Structure formats: structure tokens, C-alpha cells
Amino acid sequence: MSTFLWILIYIVFSIIYKWIISWGGAKHIQGWKSIFFTDTESTYWNVEQIRLMTIFIWVCFTVLFLIGLFYPEYRFLRLASKLN
Q: Which of 60, 64, 37 is nearest to 49 (CA)?
């Protein structure tokens, strides 16, 4: 995966996470739609809980992004292809 694509993926996910946290997205995805964004059983969560989980996911994804940015061999697709 190229560095440009790696950065583009991070920017797209960051915009989605920013929408959920700051721009009212948590209210729109509250209920069954939150499963697609938080990857957990979050159908009964309120808006604050969805925002908190999104912040946690965003921080973890930022760490993975920085690792992949400085060490390209740890990017997801290249790592998956080496495992096969």
C-alpha cells in the first residue's frame, strides 16, 4: 500500500470520526447503525457512550497510522500478504 493511500485512508476515517464526535453524527447513528462505526454491540448506547468509544477507536487508529507511516512493512495489506 502506498504512503499516499495510507494517508488518504486516515484522512477519510478522521473526517468520519470527527463527524461522530463533534458534528452531531452520534445522534444520527444512535441505535442499530452504531454497530457499523464502533464494531461493538452498541445498539443500546446513548450519544455520550458512542462518542467516547469513537474517541478511543480514533486514538488507537492514530497510533496504528503513525506506526504504518514510519514503518511501511506494518501496514495492513502488506502485513496480510506476508502472512499468506
A: 37
Contact by Cβ (8 Å): 19, 30 = no
* Angle made by CA atoms 81, 83, 84, in degrees to the nearest 5: 70
Expressed in percent and rounded to 5, the helix, strand and coil fractions of the chain are 80, 0, 20
Q: What is the pLDDT of residues 25-63, one digit of tens each?
A: 888 788 766 666 666 666 677 888 888 888 999 999 999
pLDDT for 7 equals 93
| The three three-digit cell numbers of residue 84, written as one number | 499468506
Contact by Cβ (8 Å): 55, 18: no
Q: What is the pTM of this model?
A: 0.75
Give the cell for residue 26: 452520534
